[in-house]
Amino acid sequence: MNVIVVGSGIAGLTAALHAHESGHVVTLVTKGALGDGSTGFAQGGVAGVYGDGDSARQHARDTLDAGAGLSDPAAVSILVAEGAARIAELIARGVAFDRSPDGQLLLGREAAHSHARIVHAGGDATGAAIARALSAAVRASGITVVEDAFLVDLVVVDGAVRGIRTLVDGTLGGLDAEAVILATGGAGHLYAHTTNPEGTTGDGIAAALRAGADVADLEFVQFHPTILDSAPAFLVSEAVRGEGAILIDADGRRFMFDVHPDGELAPRDVVSRAIARQAAAQGSPVRLDATMLGAEMLAKRFPTIDRVTRERGFDWAHEPIPVTPAAHYLMGGIVTDLDGRTSIPALFAVGEVARTGVHGANRLASNSLLEGAVFGARAAAALRMPASAPLPAPTRRGDDPLPDRTTTSPFSRPALQQLMWDHVGLLRTDDGLAQALDVIRSWRATAPAPRDVAAHEDANLLLLAEATVSAALRRTTSVGAHFREPALIGV
Ligand code: SIN
Predict the structure, then answer these.
(1) Which residue blocks in 189-230 are alpha helix, DSSP H?
(2) Which of 268, 341, 363, 444 is flagged as catalytic?
(3) What is the pLDDT of residues 441-485, one digit of tens each?
(4) How far is the CA of 169 from the centre of ligand 1 (A)?
(5) Domains and their CATH numbers in the chain
């Protein structure tokens, strides 16, 4: 079968390798260079190696708890059952996870995990090690790789996907296929502050929406609690808190236990909101105190964070560092079944672009690389298999009709990102969401037809912004990462 994989993070690379190894003719199309994208930025690791007293069952329980009751238990069972095989595969493909002197995998702990079960590589450079190893495997495999190719749209013929339209060096082109696997990642650049690399503009979800695919749960946007308060955004891994670092207010007081019995290791949404509220109350960023871990340990276990904080003028071994939340991960996306199939025949989605049901309303830390590997492999295996069951509910389209409006303010990407940050961020109100929807719709109604990559990205961001705000308005109660409150408090 002729297969196109779009995207080259862990999900796309895994899908491409598995499809190729099963005898399919694979073309991997990627927006930047092979292996660019969010995977390479992942610090924390891959959850799923079970030490004493831990089990896949307990991992499933933690995942379901983090998902706030909205995860699909069948998808979670698959994640934890197949995780070990995918981690073993990563090792076989050359990912050198960190080990103790006697050769055992070192296991880290992150928020809302009941046990240390996260493998990491290069201390805090896990994603980079994975992206390197899988990209090298793809290069060595003979898979055709098309870099710097922007996904303009999916080609749908007689109701099934039959290829993609691309923009390469300013020229529109196309590639035919019998199946397309989208692995284009999330949409962090909807927001003014994000951990996501440049180019994370929701291109795959937007193309799927235009083609008529079902999407769901776009209102569930995860904000990572601890981004160094210094531009450009730089994530300070949750594993630092897992090792014992604490969050303190302007008076040096530990405040997380006022909010949650698990303190700094409470679920991510809880920690992010507490940090935002505390920062608003004190008029300055809260601080992460890792000094008790010692300079030697910090440099060895977190070499990337150690280097970057020092480059930015912070000596975290001796003083607490200022931290603030930022948009990190999209739990929702293109609705898939347990094998990555979407509502459009011959279209698959894997990784952050997909809504498999694993994450529910809030993703458990270090489950994203795992999900990419597990469902990337499953989608490749399913290419020739007929669907066995209808797609799970809920399925919602995000493309409400546009109202007839005139523009009230000029569109710019930073203006959209600030609007989303202010009104569709950590804390959401009915008025704020309605106001944001009005502005986004007026911008969409007057946007010119996109001609270059930046304009296509803007159109994708606007489409997703509208779908996200509409979804947030529809979900009138707070759950997981979606938090509704009567009035904004100034974050
Ligand atoms: C982190 O290292 O804190 C991020 C890990 C994740 O998002 O899963």
Answers:
(1) 203-211
(2) 268
(3) 999 999 999 999 999 999 999 999 999 999 999 999 999 999 998
(4) 34
(5) 1-220+331-397 (3.50.50.60), 225-325 (3.90.700.10)
